[in-house]
Design goal:
Chains A, B: Pathway: Amino-acid biosynthesis; L-methionine biosynthesis via de novo pathway; O-succinyl-L-homoserine from L-homoserine: step 1/1. Two copies of one chain form a homodimer. With 388 residues, chain A is α/β, with parallel strands linked by helices. The first copy, chain A, starts with 15 loop residues before the first strand and ends with a helix. Chain A has two domains: 262 residues, Alpha/Beta hydrolase fold, catalytic domain (Rossmann fold); 96 residues, Rna Polymerase Sigma Factor, Chain: A. The longest helix of chain A has 16 residues. In chain A, 34% of the residues lie in helices and 14% in strands. The interface between A and B is large, with 54 and 54 residues.
Chain lengths: 388, 388
């Protein structure tokens, strides 16, 4: 926890709740009659409302991007390394918006929140939402905030899919699209890992077909296993070797089932911590959103056609040892954008940290990202620039 | 099941049981006062007893390498593609020996077999055995069969670790060592995947601390999850893409938790089949043997020093898309052997099938392996050759 707030932090922040009563039609055919989004913002919206940045979160992220909720907060928001005064996403220049996506478990309408029709948690009755559904709900949030056009929509991993979808669905409403460590669709291997996670959760006896809230139960084992599998795929083989190697907990083998190697204790710890903090139904829903995402599917399997209507400038960033969303997947996005004649630049960052790299302030990554944000700032219409 | 036995099959075969009453000292410090090994052999041992081949099995393998146990057998032994009259491991030339390793669940002494002291299944009281322990027990089996020196010891994956250990522990007792899709030690990532499997099994409420036999219970969910994770790591990303891609079960999304993609159904099926056929305590034990294997550890972390005493010729084979036991790991073995001045040749086979490739009769693999077995045959001492 911070004894004092660092000078380059956005400081103490509080989430806001936004209620929406206009029904939202979802890809699954159902609709949400009303819903609520939990939102955090940092920095100041300029008079033109033209300096706003939307940051979309990944599987386990939320609205709390940066800063602290209290002086007792053990750690800052999940992208504090990139967001703050003078940081890459500079809150002296930009008005930054983060939200917990629909179906999340950090305050927005989702499985762990009350269904207005019953007063009890939605549980498994919360509809399965997709990346386009999220983008639609984010567009309504932009309307509410009076933001007609984002200076940039930015996201890593599942967040990058949302950024890409913004460019497809609302081409007039963003000037820059920054897609980090993402893919235009998951591979079979990725779906397979997600399915292991789902099986671990749904077969946990504490899952009760998703109605565990009423039973005062939590499918902790399932969530722990899901997170352990996930965590392995977020790190690289090389990165794990560097960080853990074959280091033993006690220096020698004890020939029993207790953790013998440091990597085992680490994963158990990560898994257990996660299982105490995250909602199982949300995990299922987020992995389904990942699996289903495939913007090319409705354009004859052509990603080039899917992005043809986009108007913004694109930046695509990948990391050399990311095998969950490998550079190859990023290059597919870049190739489609080039094929469609879009303005795109691409950077592949050398890093041993695997998929996790997108959350780490690697110097070269921050340089590239910073140059990109300089472009975003330069493209803020001049009347707004002058008014600052 | 075979309506008729193929001409190049070893045909109908039966396992034999070998009882050993000389205590076996184990690496963990415990000993087995007596134990039993389940064994299958194919072909004929020559007068010199010099044409014997030992095939060591991997994590889920056993003694049943080739042929059928009955005309109702749904499929042949696990390496039937490589073993038989006229096949790569030619049973017209060689006497082939397969065994279920100690701690296995297919008849040899192990967790699901009676502890002679109590009459009840050993369960978790069966000692954790290591690759060197297995090799020691295999050497005693060789003694019993009157085989002073193997023409070759061959193994893939965990089996390859046993072959390597033979060359280290019993340099006089093998002429050729064939190490396929293996590693001289697991990486942190490999250990991590094994730990997910162990957590899935040991946290299954049906596991009962390993004493599930007495409860008429089976930790099926844990075993299923373990196998699903394992299976993903045995295939390659490319191979999965080729085989499954994003093919849907029903042609379109149904927006529920049932399997939507072919890869999901496939993994569930594989996992469920495995959980009905394999013993959970054995799975735990086999993964520990994998994790612990590290012959360099007792030679100042130098694999070159570990293999310095070896006398046999080595063949090391890897597969391009194998990421569980990558070509890089095989090259570490090759480099150590070269450094130690040993006779070694190495082949990296181009294949999309990942780790599973070692079980598949890929033409180039079979050519390379066949040439190698020609060498093994040529090195059978001439008196024996003449007597054939």
């Amino acid at each position: 926890m911070p004894t004092s707030i660092p000078a380059d932090s956005v400081g103490l922040v509080q989430p806001q709740q936004f209620q929406f009563d206009q029904p939202l039609e979802l890809a699954c055919g159902r609709q949400l009659d009303s819903y609520s989004l939990t939102v955090e913002t940092y920095g100041t919206l300029n008079a033109d409302r033209s300096n706003a940045i939307l940051v979309c979160h990944a599987l386990s992220g939320n609205h709390h991007l940066a800063g602290y909720h209290s002086m007792d907060d053990p750690k800052p928001g999940w992208w504090d390394s990139a967001i703050g005064p003078g940081k890459v996403i500079d809150t002296n220049r930009f008005f930054v918006v983060g939200l917990n996506n629909l179906g999340g478990c950090h305050g927005s309408s989702g499985p762990n929140q009350p269904n207005p029709e019953t007063g009890a948690p939605y549980g498994p009755d919360f509809p399965i939402v997709t990346v386009p559904d999220w983008v639609q709900s984010q567009a309504r949030l932009a309307d509410r905030l009076g933001i007609q056009q984002w200076a940039a929509v930015i996201g890593g991993s599942l967040g990058g899919m949302q950024a890409l979808q913004w460019a497809i669905d609302y081409p007039q409403r963003l000037r820059h699209c920054i897609i980090i460590a993402a893919a235009a669709r998951l591979s079979a291997q990725n779906i397979a890992f997600n399915e292991v996670a789902r099986q671990a959760i749904t077969r946990d006896p504490q899952f009760h077909d998703g109605h565990y809230y009423a039973k005062q139960a939590i499918p902790k084992t399932g969530l722990m296993l899901a997170r352990m599998v996930g965590h392995i795929t977020y790190l690289s083989d090389d990165g794990m070797r560097e960080k853990f190697g074959r280091d033993m907990k006690s220096g020698k083998l004890s020939f029993d089932l207790s953790p013998q190697f440091e990597i085992e204790s680490y994963l158990q710890y990560q898994g257990e911590r996660f299982s105490a903090a995250f909602d199982a139904n949300t995990y299922l829903l987020m992995t389904r959103a990942l699996d289903y995402y495939d913007p090319a599917a409705s354009f004859g399997d052509s990603l080039s056609e899917a992005v043809r209507g986009a108007q913004c400038k694109f930046k695509v960033i990948s990391f050399t040892t990311d095998w969950r969303f490998s550079p190859e997947r990023s290059r597919e996005i870049v190739d489609a954008l080039i094929d469609a004649g879009k303005a795109v630049s691409y950077a592949e960052i050398d890093s041993p940290q695997g998929h996790d790299a997108f959350l780490i302030p690697i110097p070269r990554y921050m340089e590239v990202f910073g140059a990109c944000m300089g472009q975003v700032a330069a493209d803020i219409p001049s009347s707004a620039q002058e008014s600052r």
